[in-house]
Design brief:
9-stranded mixed sheet; FAD-dep_OxRdtase; elongated; D-aspartate oxidase; 7 helices; 6-stranded mixed sheet; alpha/beta; 28% helix
Length: 336
């Protein structure tokens, strides 16, 4: 079988890696307009989804998260963990608005530890917080993980090609199976009006003394990465296409994070970054269909619209997408 994966971010690369395991005799090519400039590169990469995250059903969503956590945890336990940028991490979530804000239906039964903070732990940060949770999870540093994934694909004989498409039909009849992992690109490629950009801005600072993550309200977060780099965030601007850095937004982010952790005032800013997350109203799209071009047809599996949770849920949606592809392929053969 000839398989084309469209998309060079975390969704596309993870899908391609899993395809090498499940469709061993296939010829696989990954196409992307740019492998080095994707929204995945901006992400802090912490394994945490919001309570509103949703797949087609609760059971499927839980499977996505369970499979994703297991995938990254297997890498964490391997000798490649430092090269792949995957490590264990723990930290705190604080809120004043409601005790529900620090609870999470998806995470509480998934990660090794998820508990209420103690009275002493409230003293770790500034502010008179009413509610708090402590939990352990995983971190995937995309600046390391994406090059590692590309290297693994090339070692497996997978081709990586820079190319843009105006229509998925351009791939028919040359490819039997098309995995559509184009993120925001699916708006035009699939005419998906549910898909909108969710602009986010972050700062990367040098703060090697910070070893745990901290979340406050108003999209305030401090997430340590590799090599002493810490991500300060953030923002969520729906339906914004503006990729220019806003100095006022950076100042506001830094002020909120320093109010939470005053020690950050001495942290040097390394970089400011903007990314457009592919947010899809209602739920992430992982669906299969046939497309036709003349007398030829191909199976297409869509896998996009993860919003701000692409890094942490990529392995689970990839596994589910490949399952749908296999089922459709078997069904097509049975009809012959």
């Amino acid at each position: 079988m000839k398989v084309a994966v469209i998309g060079g971010g975390i969704i596309g690369l993870t899908t391609a890696l899993q395809l090498t395991r499940e469709l061993r005799n296939s010829e696989i090519t990954v196409f992307a307009s740019d492998f080095n400039n994707t929204v995945s590169h901006v992400a802090a990469g912490i394994f945490r989804v919001g309570s509103s995250y949703s797949g087609p059903t609760e059971e499927i969503t839980r499977n996505w998260l369970r499979d994703s956590y297991a995938y990254y945890d297997d890498i964490r336990k391997s000798h490649e963990a430092s090269f792949a940028g995957v490590t264990a991490i723990s930290g705190y979530l604080f809120a004043n608005s409601s005790p529900e804000t620090v609870k999470n239906q998806w995470m509480e039964n998934l990660v090794p530890i998820y508990r209420r903070v103690t009275d002493e732990e409230f003293q770790l940060v500034e502010g008179n917080w009413k509610y708090g949770s402590f939990f352990s999870t995983l971190l995937t540093e995309c600046k390391l993980h994406l090059p590692w994934a590309r290297k693994k694909l090339e070692e497996n004989g997978i081709s990586l090609a820079v190319k843009e498409f105006n229509s998925l039909r351009e791939l028919v009849p040359d490819w039997n199976l098309i995995m559509n992992c184009t993120g925001l690109g699916a708006r035009s490629l699939c005419n998906d009006r549910r898909l909108v950009s969710m602009r986010g801005q972050v700062l990367k600072v040098k703060a090697p003394w910070i070893k745990t993550f901290f979340y406050g309200e108003l999209d305030t977060y401090v997430i340590p990465g590799f090599n002493g780099t810490v991500t300060l965030g953030g923002s969520r601007n729906f339906d914004s296409e503006n990729v220019k850095l806003c100095p006022h937004e950076s100042a506001a982010i830094r002020e909120r994070c320093e109010n939470l952790l005053p020690g950050l005032k001495k942290a040097e800013v390394i970089k400011e970054e903007v990314g457009l997350r592919p947010y899809r109203a209602n739920n992430v799209r992982v669906e299969v269909e046939h497309i036709v071009n003349g007398f030829s047809k191909a199976i297409v599996v869509h896998n996009y619209g993860h919003g701000g949770y692409g890094v942490c849920t990529a392995p689970g949606t990839a596994k589910y997408a490949i399952k749908l592809a296999k089922e459709m392929h078997k069904s097509s053969i049975a009809k012959l």
